[in-house]
Structure formats: C-alpha cells, structure tokens
Amino acid sequence: MTAVAFYDDTDALLKSVHYTYDAFDRLIGKAVDDDGDTFVDRGQSFVYDGTDIVLVYDETGSLTDRFLTGPDIDQMLAQENGSGDVQWLLADQQGTIRDVAEYDSGTETTSVVNHLQYDSFGRITHIMLQADQSGIEHGRPTRTRERRKVQLASCCLQIVT
Description:
By secondary structure, the protein is mainly beta. It has 1 helix and 13 strands.
C-alpha cells in the first residue's frame, strides 16, 4: 500500500496519507495531508540500520527521534527524542521490556517512568505511570491497533482482558 485517501459522503477529500518504500520494502517516508487541500501538513522520513529504524526526521528535515538497538532481533535499548531526553528500555532475562527509565536533559536526572506487566500470552495487562509512546516499537513503526492498545493502557493505567 502506497497511499490512503479518506473521503466524505459527497466524495470530497478529507485526508490523505502517502507512504514511500525502498528497494527492500522498508517504509522510508510518510506524508500526511490532514485537511484534504493536497498540501503535505506533516511528514516523516526513516533511516535504517539493517532492518531497524535508527533515525526519524520530520518534514523539515529536523531529527525527531534516535534509536539505539542491540545485536539481537527486535532488541530496542533506548530512544532519544529531539530535545535530548532519553528513554532506556529495561528488559528481563527473556528480553521482555519490564521498565522504562527516562533521562531528562533539562534536570539531568534519570527515573523509572513506566513499569509494565504482561499476561501469559505476552499482552500488556498493566502499566504503572505514563511515558511518551512514539509509535515505534522494536525499531519498526507499530501497527495502529497495537499503538491504540498502548495509548489506551497509558491513559487508563489498566487493561482488562
């Protein structure tokens, strides 16, 4: 899929999203027209190291996110946003993220901002505290459904399954 368009019942364009892929079928760009006027309102460009996203730029070319990945598959170690704040993803012995520690560049402090609990099927059942969810998980963009689940969990602090 390279584009999605949203229309109202009179076939007027409401919103469109255009996706760009490289020769390896990796998402490298996303352009969004939020109001249907055919001008790009926001966008993102993705830079990869192998199969992992390591840098994300906005439509102006400004760096918005930087990711540190480990040698294992889907091993995300840290995420740094454009203002220099760093989230360290702390895993257990099986590689499951259990805690998120955040370094605040403004106060130069590090604190645990999230503690995650899972059920036996690997679904998040409880999130204590709240942290920013960028929509990128394991060095790849998250699926919308899963991102909504995390946002819901962050908002409500409890998922009942």
